[in-house]
Design a protein that fits this description.
7 helices
């Protein structure tokens, strides 16, 4: 709640109406999630063995994390610069995941996968901020197309890793993993185009 209050105060001080509106929207989105998050926590606490209740809590936490990232993106003075920094971190996370997969260390794979997903989500949110700050409709479209493409590859990462780990000697699984790596890296590069 404090973050919402700070964001709203920051928004009121903005001269740029577009930036002010982006901050207020991000703040409102987080505010709307608070009750949902509280309800999900109560339900999960009351039903610790109910997988649906636990999943509802995990989903609410993910949405709240994304809403928090959106506030950060909206309040960033230079989204382009921040996106370039995040982009480098995301590429490093992708390489870290690739190395963990090659090592076969399941704990390292799980940690690297979580880090990559978090980094991709941050970069996507910052890319949206860059798109919203752009007055070039073609650039906006390119960024949103790149985001959609990246999200498609992001959703394929876990199933592809599982298939590979089940049979790492399969040429088909090796090729699928290599293609996913290349396509994800290209999709990340397309965000900066």
């Amino acid at each position: 709640q404090n973050q919402i209050k700070v964001a709203n105060n920051y928004a009121r001080k903005q001269r740029d109406p577009k930036k002010r509106n982006n901050i207020l929207k991000a703040s409102q989105d987080l505010s709307n999630l608070i009750n949902e998050l509280v309800d999900a926590m109560k339900l999960a606490a009351e039903n610790p063995n109910d997988e649906q209740a636990q999943q509802r809590l995990r989903d609410a936490i993910e949405r709240a994390k994304k809403a928090n990232m959106a506030i950060a993106a909206a309040t960033t003075d230079n989204p382009e610069e921040e996106m370039a920094r995040l982009h480098q971190k995301t590429l490093e996370s992708l390489d870290k995941l690739w190395e963990a997969i090659k090592s076969g260390d399941l704990q390292a794979i799980a940690a690297a996968l979580k880090e990559l997903n978090d980094d991709i989500n941050r970069e996507i949110i910052m890319a949206k901020a860059v798109a919203e700050n752009s007055d070039d409709p073609e650039r906006k479209k390119r960024i949103y197309d790149a985001i959609e493409n990246l999200q498609g590859f992001q959703s394929q990462i876990l199933p592809t890793i599982k298939a590979y780990n089940a049979n790492p000697n399969s040429p088909q699984n090796q090729a699928a993993l290599a293609n996913l790596y290349d396509n994800t890296k290209k999709a990340l590069e397309d965000l900066l185009a």
